[in-house]
Fold this protein.
Amino acid sequence: MERKLVVAGSIFGIAFAITLTAIRFFNSPFGALNVEWLGNLAFLIVYSAPYILALVALAFREHVLQVGIWLASALLAALTSVTAFSGVTLFFLIPAILLLLGGLVTLGRVSWRNHVGILASALLLIGLLVSGVVSFAFLFMLPATPFCWQVRTLPNGTQVVEPDPNTQAQIISTQNGNVFSGTGSVSSQPLPDGSTISGGGCTSDFITPLEALLNIGIWGLTFLGLWKLRTLQFASRTLLNES
């Protein structure tokens, strides 16, 4: 039963994470689409991570270790549910509850005499929570990074979207780390090449390559470490059986 709960919660969570990332991508400022692909990848990984952890736990043979991973996944999923002011991420509470139920059902199978296993499970839970909180901090709590773009209309009528460093520099000097939104520079005066600036905008909802790489690195190491733990645990069981 617990495996069905975990699989159902994970599938739902990953599907909603993909949907949320797609919404973010297509609703992003037009000029940011070609410069934030790494940020969108990190965004997807951060919101999918709790469910990937839960699925990896299915490979563990020790129920006590599965409990730690599934409870950590449930808490991280609940944390992602409150990351959007619009409330759209509240849907993550559904898979969080399913993962929590899976963990609690499995907890009923754990022998309380297995002190070493319980300690290892608790440490695993704490370690995964630390990885998740640090990742969320890098993604959501670092100072807002401004990004401005402009729409330049060429003499032949073609429109080109490009970064607007002038407006961006002005915002950096005045925002003092505050979240902002607004419009970029617009001018009807033709530039030397005959083009005109016909539109633009600015946003603080921008994930820099450094922020993205930090998040991808954190979760990459976490997934690798968790998989290695599963392998080492399996090997130790084999040695014990052979002895």
About this structure: The first strand starts at residue 147 and ends at 153. The longest helix spans residues 209-242. The radius of gyration is 23 Å. The CA atoms of residues 8 and 98 lie 7 Å apart.
